[in-house]
């Protein structure tokens, strides 16, 4: 058993930058053809071109709004038309809109849930329909340790990521008889554009909460994705892998 993915096609949502881009690059390095699905069409194109040039695999940039089911249906159809297959789905697209519960508007709560949770459902439903017919597939959902522990000011985000974890387990139970696995990864604080925007004093307080005393890298999350979509994890489904330097512990 190994991590060779030659001949496979992976669709990564939110794949244009950050953790999504790292996942796309890691899978491409193992020979996988890559679909970069992102709301930002120009960024998706740039990432797809970069991966194609560097790793010599087929790439396909596609603009999609994960919160809009019709947009997701159109995206998946275009990928099937182009590649005739989707072997791997990584639901990575996500947003935050933080404030305390009493200050949070219903619109801001819905905004985060619609992208983080409903977006994962939309792609699972559309791609899962194809995978069920093929009787094969790997699905990895990017959750968060906040979905396991909660966090002040992140009621919408924690609810969405907790929902992703529950959705992962249900998907695993419904799809497992067709040789489709579904697992989740719950990253801790990863060094991305989003976390770099935090005030320095908050970053320092977060470091104190992490036993390893450092932020994770997008590549750390990507390595776990590679494991879960490879033959090495063929008998693992419905699980949550925490990548957090020991923080949740």
- The helix content, as a percent range, equals 40-55%
Radius of gyration from CA coordinates: 17 Å
Compute the number of helices: 9
Number of strands: 7
Coarse morphology? globular
Rounded mean pLDDT score: 96
Low-confidence stretches: none
**Based on helices, strands and strand pairing, what is the structural class?**
alpha/beta
> How much of the polypeptide forms β-strand, as a percent range?
15-25%
The arrangement of helices and strands along the chain is: EHEHEHEHEHHEHHHE
- The protein's oligomeric status is single chain
Strand count, sense and closure of the main sheet? Answer: 7 strands, parallel
Distance between the termini: 31 Å
Strand order of the largest sheet: 3-2-1-4-5-6-7
What features would you describe in this structure?
With 249 residues, this protein is an alpha/beta fold. The protein has a 7-stranded parallel beta sheet with strand order 3-2-1-4-5-6-7, sandwiched between helices. Helix 3 runs parallel beside helix 4. The longest helix is centred in the middle third of the chain and has 29 residues. The chain is globular and about 50 Å long. The two termini are 31 Å apart. The model has no long low-confidence stretch (mean pLDDT 96).
Quick overview:
This protein is α/β, with parallel strands linked by helices and 249 residues long.
What structural keywords apply?
single chain, 249 residues, alpha/beta, 7-stranded parallel sheet, 49% helix
What's the structural blueprint in terms of helices and strands?
Blueprint: E1 9-13, H1 18-29, E2 33-38, H2 41-55, E3 59-63, H3 69-83, E4 88-91, H4 106-134, E5 137-142, H5 146-149, H6 155-175, E6 180-187, H7 193-196, H8 200-208, H9 218-229, E7 240-243
Parallel strand pairs: 1-2, 1-4, 2-3, 4-5, 5-6, 6-7
Helix pairs in contact: 1-2, 1-9, 3-4, 4-6
């Amino acid at each position: 058993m190994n991590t060779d993915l030659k001949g496979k096609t992976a669709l990564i949502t939110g794949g244009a930058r950050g953790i999504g881009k790292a996942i796309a690059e890691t899978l491409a390095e193992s020979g996988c053809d890559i679909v970069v699905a992102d709301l930002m069409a120009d960024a998706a194109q740039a990432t797809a071109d970069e991966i194609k040039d560097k790793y010599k695999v087929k790439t396909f940039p596609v603009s999609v709004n994960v919160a809009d089911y019709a947009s997701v249906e159109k995206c998946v159809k275009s990928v099937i038309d182009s590649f005739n297959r989707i072997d791997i789905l990584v639901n990575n697209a996500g947003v935050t809109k933080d404030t305390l519960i009493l200050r949070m508007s219903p619109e801001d709560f819905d905004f985060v849930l619609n992208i983080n949770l409903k977006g994962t459902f939309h792609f699972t439903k559309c791609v899962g329909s194809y995978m069920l017919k093929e009787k094969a597939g790997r699905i990895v959902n990017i959750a968060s340790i906040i979905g396991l522990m909660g966090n002040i000011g992140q009621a919408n985000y924690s609810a969405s990521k907790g929902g992703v974890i529950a959705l992962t387990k249900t998907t695993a139970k419904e799809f497992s008889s067709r040789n489709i696995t579904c697992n989740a990864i719950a990253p801790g604080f990863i060094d991305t554009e989003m976390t770099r925007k935090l005030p320095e004093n908050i970053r320092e307080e977060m470091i104190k909460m992490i036993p390893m005393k450092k932020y994770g890298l997008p590549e750390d999350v990507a390595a776990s994705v590679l494991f879960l979509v490879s033959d090495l994890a063929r008998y693992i489904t419905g699980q949550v892998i925490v990548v957090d330097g020991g923080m949740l512990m």
